[in-house]
Amino acid sequence: MGGSHLCYGNGGSLSTGAEIASENIERNDRKVWTVKRSLEWASRYLEKRGIENPGLNAELLLGHLLQKKRFDLCLVVNQDLSCSVRILFQNLVKKRAQHVPLSHLTGKQDFMGYSFKVDPRVYIPRPETEILVEKVLQAASLTRGRKFMAVDLGTGCGNIAITLAKQLQRSKIWAVDISPESLEVARDNARLHHVDKRVEFLRGDLFTPLTRLGLQRRVDLIISNPPYVASTQMRNLPPEVKKEPKVALEGGEDGLSIHRRIIRQAPRFLNKTGLLALEIGYGQAKIIKDLISAQPQFLPPKIVSDYQGKKRVVLTRTIFLRSKFWFQQEVKERGLRHGLKFYGLS
Ligand SMILES: C[S@@+](CC[C@H](N)C(=O)[O-])C[C@H]1O[C@@H](n2cnc3c(N)ncnc32)[C@H](O)[C@@H]1O
Predict the structure, then answer these.
(1) What is the 3-state secondary structure (H, E, C) of 182-234?
(2) Is 86 domain-assigned?
(3) Blockwise average pLDDT, block size 10, the chain, 346 residues
(4) CA-CA distance, 279 to 128, in Å (whole number)?
(5) 160 in a domain, yes or no?
(6) Is there a domain that residue 226 lies in?
(7) Using a 6 Å CB cutoff, which residues line ligand 1?
(8) pLDDT of amino acid 2
């Protein structure tokens, strides 16, 4: 639980025993609060309150206040904190100890190397979702050269849509969310990343706002990281996660109600080799595979695991008459794997 510290000890050599013992946040403390001493204090304070990786949290919070990268704190360990920074830091650490998510305290979250503004109005982007985007970018390389049309369902802070727009220069993305608060944050992020002309944000329930745009059968990609926590599991979520919007987390009775609707409706919007890419939760791969396999318009899905070995991403493509013939030929002549490779799914 102690986490790894950058370059300050764990022994608290610069802190008096009484301070650490009482854990007082004394505003009148006249002793010099160096970076090192502050990090030691914060790390212990957080550890005692059950925060995972307390050292890392302390470093990221102080780095945020000093506008320094975590590793650059090494260079200033003996620097004194000004009184105002010290008080701000202590307040942030106190809030973190109450399980306020780190990203809510810093106001940002990195995703695929880009920094996104986040706050309690939106879901905080997770590293696992980077796998979804990476796989899509690999598969999308097949269409390089022509305009790429994509839909991001449940866009949250816009991290997926904006990353795709940054990486695929000739793309147009429609990003949908049911939450108007999420869309406010997402629009800000699109402006910050200078892709607001190519990402169009729409408020509504899944495909509803797309119908009136006449996008039927025209979309190259539908990507989504929908809510997938089963209703019965909501109360078991960690305290940090409970501070995120419920609408971003809860996926109905078995957690898959939104996935079901997406899988059912996606073929209406995808073009003849359109890609459907979904993030899934732990233990959901089998049902999702069955749902996709039951739809004749889809190729057999490919499941991709995350770095912990958990099945995390599902990819499939639509298959219409001519392409179906192609696929069957490939499978007959060279096997299923090669057939899928033809579609960028292997
Ligand atoms: C798990 S979050 C994903 C956010 C972001 N795309 C990401 O991957 O980090 C799910 C998002 O879906 C949105 N959402 C939930 N139900 C929806 C619905 N029926 N239609 C559209 N968006 C929905 C939520 O508001 C939330 O922003």
Answers:
(1) HHHHHHHHHHHCCCCCCEEEEECCCCHHHHCCCCCCCEEEEEECCCCECHHHH
(2) yes
(3) 46 34 49 92 98 97 96 93 96 98 98 98 98 93 76 98 95 98 98 98 97 93 98 97 98 98 97 95 97 94 95 92 62 68 62
(4) 9
(5) yes
(6) yes
(7) 123, 125, 129, 153-156, 159-160, 176-179, 182, 205-206, 225-227, 247-248, 258
(8) 37
